[in-house]
Amino acid sequence: MTLANLLNSLQTISVELIKSGKGETAYFFIKRYDEIIKLNNEQDSIRQIVKELSTCQAMAQYGDFSPMEEKLLESVVKDAINFLDHSL
C-alpha cells in the first residue's frame, strides 16, 4: 500500500467533512496531510503521523459522523494500517 492511497483518503474525508460543516474535524485530517507532504522522505516522522491516523476510528463517535463519513474514516484507518504494515 502506498502513501498516495492514504493521502487520497485524507483529501476525500477532509472535503466531505467541510461540506457537512465539520471544519474543525476536517482540519485534523488536513493538518496530517500537510505534515506528511512537508516531511517528504523523513520516514520515521511520517510513520509517527500515520500511526496516529491508524488509531483515530473513535473520532466517528464523538464527531457525530454520518454513515458516509464513517466509511471514509474507515478508509483512512485502513490505508494507514496498510501503509504501516508494508513500509520499512
Description of the molecule:
This protein is an all-alpha fold and 88 residues long. The protein has one domain (3-86). It contains 5 helices and no strands. The protein is globular and about 35 Å long. The model has no long low-confidence stretch (mean pLDDT 94).
Could you spell the SSE succession in H and E letters?
HHHHH
Strand content: under 5%
Runs in which pLDDT lies below 50 for 5 or more consecutive residues are none
Number of folding domains? Answer: 1
Largest sheet: none
User: Could you tell me the radius of gyration in angstroms?
Assistant: 12 Å
Instruction: Name the overall outline.
Output: globular
* Total count of strands: 0
Mean pLDDT, nearest integer? 94
In which range does the helix fraction lie?
A: over 70%
**Number of DSSP helices?**
5
Quick synopsis:
78% of the residues lie in helices and 0% in strands. The protein is mostly helical and 88 residues long.
What's the topology here?
Layout: H1 3-19, H2 23-39, H3 43-53, H4 59-62, H5 67-86
Which keywords apply here?
78% helix; 88 residues; 0% strand; 5 helices
